[in-house]
């Protein structure tokens, strides 16, 4: 009987200590992960595709939709692929009857809670100094670089020359990253 009483008191003391520690933790200042979370971008890349290129052609375009469901804007700054010497972010504008393409030196902003569609005749990724022609039906690995989200590994589906958009429902398996 004395053993049971001693054991009960020991258990009571342990419970009281746990309660005190719990209350002390509740009174402690909370960590501030909100500051990190509010500065985060969450990027998803979908509808990724490219057009086939001719033998000897040294550049090709890549197109996609980039969504940012995070709370801060991000910026697509470049990338890499084993099939090209460099990857650049471009825009295309019309000056009179002439289409002008230029590199976006500072990259392309993807707004918080928004999306940007890279498509023919507009913003796009350029695969420069191609090491081989892009052939319809092939897939091409592409690593995209974002100022906030870092790098995202993806693949482009190569469509026939003259394609203007991917087939509906194809390439929508992009997963958020951030």
Structure, described:
By secondary structure, the protein is α+β, with helices and mostly antiparallel strands. The protein has two helices and ten strands, in the order ααββββββββββ. It has two domains: about 1-30; about 40-160, Immunoglobulin-like. The protein is about 20% helix and about 45% strand. Strands 1, 2, 3, 4, 5, 6, 7, 8, 9 and 10 form a ten-stranded mixed beta sheet that branches. The longest helix is centred in the first third of the chain and has 26 residues, at about 1-25. The radius of gyration is 26 Å and the shape is globular.
Set out the fold topology.
Blueprint: H1 2-27, H2 33-38, E1 43-51, E2 59-68, E3 74-80, E4 84-95, E5 98-103, E6 108-110, E7 114-118, E8 124-130, E9 139-146, E10 150-159
Parallel strand pairs: 1-10
Antiparallel strand pairs: 1-2, 2-7, 2-8, 3-6, 3-9, 4-5, 4-8, 9-10
Largest sheet: 10 strands, mixed
Task: State the share of residues found in helices, binned by percent.
Answer: 10-25%
Strand content: 35-45%
Task: Write the element-wise H/E pattern from the N-terminal end onward.
Answer: HHEEEEEEEEEE
Gyration radius, to the nearest Å?
26 Å
What does the average pLDDT come to? 78
What structural class is derived from the secondary structure elements?
alpha+beta
The CATH fourth-level homologous superfamily of the largest domain: PCu(A)C copper chaperone
- Count of DSSP E strands? 10
Task: Name the CATH architecture of the largest domain.
Answer: Sandwich
């Amino acid at each position: 009987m004395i053993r049971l009483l001693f054991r009960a008191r020991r258990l009571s003391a342990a419970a009281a200590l746990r309660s005190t520690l719990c209350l002390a933790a509740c009174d402690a200042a909370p960590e501030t992960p909100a500051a990190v979370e509010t500065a985060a971008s969450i990027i998803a890349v979908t509808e990724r595709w490219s057009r086939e290129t001719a033998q000897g052609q040294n550049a090709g375009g890549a197109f996609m939709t980039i969504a940012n469901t995070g709370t801060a804007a991000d910026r697509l700054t470049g990338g890499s692929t084993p099939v090209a010497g460099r990857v650049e972010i471009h825009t295309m504008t019309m000056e009179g009857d002439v289409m002008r393409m230029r590199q976006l030196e500072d990259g392309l902003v993807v707004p918080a809670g928004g999306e940007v569609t890279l498509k023919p005749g507009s913003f796009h990724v350029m695969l420069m100094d191609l090491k081989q022609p892009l052939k319809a039906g092939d897939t091409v690995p592409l690593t995209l670089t974002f100022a906030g989200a870092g790098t995202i590994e993806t693949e482009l589906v190569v469509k026939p020359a003259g394609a203007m958009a991917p087939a509906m429902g194809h390439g929508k398996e992009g997963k958020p990253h951030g």
